[in-house]
Amino acid sequence: MPAKLYGIGVGPGDKGYLTLKAIEKFKAVDIIYVPTGKKGQASLAFSIAEPYIPSHTPVKTYHFPMTKDQEVKTKQWDQVAHAMAQDLDQGKSLAFLTLGDPSTYSTFTYLEERLGQDYPVEVVAGITSYQAMAAALQLPLVIDEESFTVLPATTSTDLIRLSLKSADTIVIMKIKRHLKKILALLDEENLRDQAYIISQATMEEEKVYGDLSDWQGDESISYFSTMIVRKSKEA
Fold first, then answer.
1. Chain-centre distance of CA 205, in angstroms?
2. What pathway is this protein a component of (predicted)?
3. Which residue, 45, 57, 50, 63, is CA-closest to 23?
4. Can you give the CATH number for the domain in which 222 is found?
5. Are 94 and 193 in the same domain?
6. Which domain holds residue 153?
7. Could you tell me the pTM of the whole model?
């Protein structure tokens, strides 16, 4: 396989959500790059893909700090992109693993921005947490002429408020540290009974919270927690 960078989505957690295309690339590339959010912490993305990665394939793990400090993040993106460029210059094909989908709130985007003009890049789509969540809840995300919005809980209160007012279905990701703010916004629009949360979707530790009318939050929910607000026709 010629030198090429693959951004591969490994899905939300359950190995059954890995695509055949992803498994095909795991077996073909020369080097696997995996991210971790904390130093010394095992990579969840790698744990999902590991059974399908040949034992002889080198795996390089890099820590991507979970911080709002843009300078710190940029420095790490540059460092990893430089390491990848060195491998690509040696004719190696690389795979960067990412939870969910590489095109949805993924670190891979920043690596592609740095390398895409000089090296061939291919993105292998993955299933997102909210797609798996909708399937588990048997909840249609969007139909007919309805609108659909996806945004992170870290965005501005005004933008979340606007989305709750205007869209038919709203997905809010990374809600753990922002539950109080989001619940207050749901109260403003009287939408608690139309909101659902899944923590660690498709994983063994999965928790489902439906109809949040009297729910006051759960400090134990995982960082990997997503909310879907699906408005009824009467809302």
1. 17
2. Cofactor biosynthesis; adenosylcobalamin biosynthesis
3. 50
4. 3.30.950.10
5. no
6. 129-230
7. 0.90
Interatomic CA distance for residues 12 and 205, integer angstroms: 13
- Cα radius of gyration rounded to whole Å, the chain: 19
Q: 89, 31 in Cβ contact below 8 A?
A: no
Closest Cα partner for 53 from 62, 65, 61, 64? 61
| 3-state class (DSSP) for residue 235 | coil
pLDDT digits (tens, 9 = 90+) for 108-141: 999 999 999 999 999 999 999 999 999 999 999 9
Residue 142 lies in a domain: yes
Encode 65-82: b = buried (16+ Cβ within 10 Å), e = exposed.
Answer: eeeeeeeebeebbeebbe
- Three-state SS string over 99-168 comes to CECCCCCCCHHHHHHHHCCCCCEEEECCCCHHHHHHHHHCCCCCCCCCCEEEEECCCCHHHHHHHHHHCC
157: left (phi over 0), alpha (psi -120 to 50) or beta: alpha
Which domain-ending residue is among 124, 151, 178? 124
